[in-house]
Design a protein that fits this description.
three-stranded antiparallel sheet, Arc Repressor Mutant, subunit A, about 190 residues, elongated, mainly alpha
Length: about 190
């Protein structure tokens, strides 16, 4: 192997390691387990299927951690199982289309976080539930509900933007236009 090729391999390897670390930190900041983000980053940046042993070796993680993480990534829909003819091992590959990847993550985060939050905030409104502690008097209940309605209004916009982005085609453009109209409202 030529010296130039060895340097390129070392450079690519170092760049991949920086990317995996960066993606892991970003995932951690967003509430995603660091290892889950790092495994995803590794599969994404490599761009080719890897088996569990390769993932374990590359990230220096245990078999249990690798297996559980790969299963979670498959459940999220951003990693797929791949079969190699003549090989009994399971291989995994990350979604390579960035827009499809983003939409899949957005769909899952919306389902797991935004939808339940909207539902629970609606239940927090005074007068709409058995919670009479909130109804100290009509004025405080009205102020309480007004604050929640403002928050629910914002989350309804976020939900609508998510739905637009998740639509096939030009959804992201529609979502950007919707966000621009919302921002103009406050200026």
């Amino acid at each position: 192997m030529s010296e130039a090729l060895q340097k390129d391999d070392a450079s690519i390897r170092a760049s991949r390691e920086r990317f995996v670390a960066l993606w892991g930190q970003m995932g951690s900041n967003w509430g995603i387990p660091r290892t889950m983000a790092e495994v995803h980053a590794l599969l994404f940046i490599r761009g080719k299927p890897m088996n569990t042993d390769e993932v374990m070796d590359a990230l220096d993680i245990s078999r249990g951690n690798a297996s559980m993480t790969l299963r979670n990534l498959v459940d999220w829909g951003i990693v797929q199982r791949v079969h190699r003819r003549g090989d009994r091992k399971e291989y995994f590959e990350a979604e390579q289309d960035v827009w499809k990847l983003f939409r899949t993550i957005l769909r899952e985060r919306k389902r797991r976080e935004i939808d339940p939050l909207i539902h629970q905030l609606r239940e927090c409104r005074a007068g709409g539930s058995a919670d009479t502690d909130v109804q100290e008097n009509d004025e405080s209940a009205a102020a309480h509900n007004a604050r929640l309605e403002e928050l629910l209004s914002f989350l309804a916009l976020v939900d609508l933007m998510c739905q637009e982005i998740l639509q096939p085609g030009e959804g992201s453009t529609d979502a950007m236009e919707l966000a621009a109209r919302f921002m103009e409202r406050d200026t």
